[in-house]
């Protein structure tokens, strides 16, 4: 089977962390990416969920701005939640 080289850029801190995890697992980064590629080929999908954090949605940002404004203006009524311990 012919082989080819794939190169890409990533954040240095991420690379260092990735290398540390791979070392703990007893494999190289190259082996980890080969496993990822084989699984992706076999499943015909990215083998984990890729999603957007809804916290940063425009709708939620508007809501947070509204609540912040109400707190700043004194309109919001804040009460202690029963799950919060003293």
Tell me the number of strands: 0
Q: What is the mean predicted local confidence, pLDDT?
A: 91
The helix content, as a percent range, equals 40-55%
Count, helices: 3
Mind describing the biggest β-sheet? none
How much of the residues is beta strand, in percent?
Answer: under 5%
The topology string of helices and strands comes to HHH
| Unreliable stretches | none
Termini Cα gap: 66 Å
Any idea what the shape is? elongated
Q: Which class best fits the helix and strand makeup?
A: mainly alpha
Write down the Rg. Answer: 23 Å
How would you characterize the overall build of this protein?
Helices cover 52% and strands 0% of the residues. The radius of gyration is 23 Å and the shape is elongated. The chain is built from 3 helices and no strands. The model has no long low-confidence stretch (mean pLDDT 91). It is an all-alpha fold and 86 residues long.
Q: Gist?
A:
This protein is mainly alpha-helical.
List the helices and strands and how they pair.
Elements: H1 12-25, H2 29-43, H3 58-73
Descriptive keywords:
86 residues, mainly alpha, elongated
């Amino acid at each position: 089977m012919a082989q080819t080289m794939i190169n890409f850029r990533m954040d240095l801190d991420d690379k260092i962390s990735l290398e540390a995890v791979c070392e703990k697992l007893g494999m190289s980064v190259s082996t980890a990416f080969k496993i990822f590629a084989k699984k992706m080929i076999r499943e015909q999908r990215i083998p984990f969920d890729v999603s957007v954090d809804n916290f940063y949605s425009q709708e939620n940002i508007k809501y947070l701005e509204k609540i912040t404004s109400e707190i700043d203006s004194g309109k919001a009524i804040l009460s202690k939640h029963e799950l919060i311990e003293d």
